[in-house]
Amino acid sequence: MHFVEHGSGIPLLLIHGFCVDHRLLLGLDPVFAARGAWRRVYIDLPGMGRSVAGPGIRSSDDVADAVASFARKTFGNERFAILGNSFGGMIARHLASEFGDQVLGLALLCPVAAAEHGRRVLPPQTVLHADPSLLATLDPEDAKAYANMAVIQSPGNWARFRDSVLPGLRVFDRSAIGRIAGRYALAVEPEDRAPVFTGPTLVIAGRQDHVVGFKDQAALAGRYPVCELAILDHAGHNAHLDQPERTGELLGLWLERIETSQPNDFGAAR
């Protein structure tokens, strides 16, 4: 599994969404770097970015197992935190239930809460600020991809999308993605496994997220006993690109909660 690593200290595993790659989350790195003492490990999920998906990767459960294997090999008994975005949020939830106390904290950024699309409670797709002149300057395929996701169209927002989203969209393995999409739901919902994760948890949702919504995420947050929920207005499915400053503030506070909740226990898992 391909990964990119920055910094040293407490491990933080970052898991991107579907059909993109680790670059989707690299724009958040200054938030973590500013606090110091965090080793950031950005992975490419199987079939995405530079990670190959062999014939054994046929479902989201297979992806979750592959990421769990990567975590065991990379972190051993060391405790680590997890951030998951969209599909990666579903995988992150699985890891939190799988590793239990070894996980220091869990952040879910616009996570998949309802795997089956028909069960999702979604707001209508909304563009709060359109910029047709900007779209007219873009490659038609890029413009289509951007317009399908952007809540606030602007040169700055486009630049973040161009650098974070488009690289992964251009290289994913369509065959592997098709296999995984055919068995997208996990066999067991992570929160139905026991015990429920009790570490510092953060759920961030976009009020205008027409892909996974925000109401299901609010219900999901209620299943974690130590959880902060933030529903960001003027933010769609790429909330960290639409509201980078607010997202950064929330993640910084989440890191602080982890650091202060167990100040002398960042070593081996209990």
Summed up, what is this model?
The chain is of the alpha/beta class. 37% of the residues lie in helices and 15% in strands. The longest helix is centred in the last third of the chain and has 18 residues, at 244-261.
Strand adjacency order, main sheet: 1-3-2-4-5-6-7
Give me the count of strands: 7
Oligomer: single chain
Percent of residues in helices: 25-40%
Using only CA atoms, what is the Rg? 18 Å
Largest sheet: 7 strands, mixed
Q: Into which percentage range does the β-strand content fall?
A: 15-25%
Weakly predicted, low-confidence segments: none
What would the average pLDDT be, to the nearest integer? 95
The separation of the N and C termini measures 27 Å
Shape: globular
Order of helices and strands: EEHEHEHEHHHHHEHEHH
Which structural class best describes the helix and strand composition? alpha/beta
Q: Please count the helical segments.
A: 11
Could you please describe the fold and organization of this structure?
By secondary structure, the chain is α/β, with parallel strands linked by helices. Helix content is 37%, strand content 15%. It is built from 11 helices and 7 strands. Strands 1-3-2-4-5-6-7 form a 7-stranded mixed β-sheet, sandwiched between helices. Helix 3 links the parallel strand 4 and strand 5 (103-109). Helix 2 (60-75) packs across helix 3 (87-99). The longest helix is centred in the C-terminal third of the chain and has 18 residues, at 244-261. The protein is globular. The mean pLDDT is 95.
Map the helices and strands.
Blueprint: E1 3-6, E2 10-15, H1 29-35, E3 38-43, H2 60-75, E4 80-85, H3 87-99, E5 103-109, H4 132-136, H5 140-147, H6 155-164, H7 166-169, H8 174-182, E6 201-206, H9 215-221, E7 227-232, H10 239-242, H11 244-261
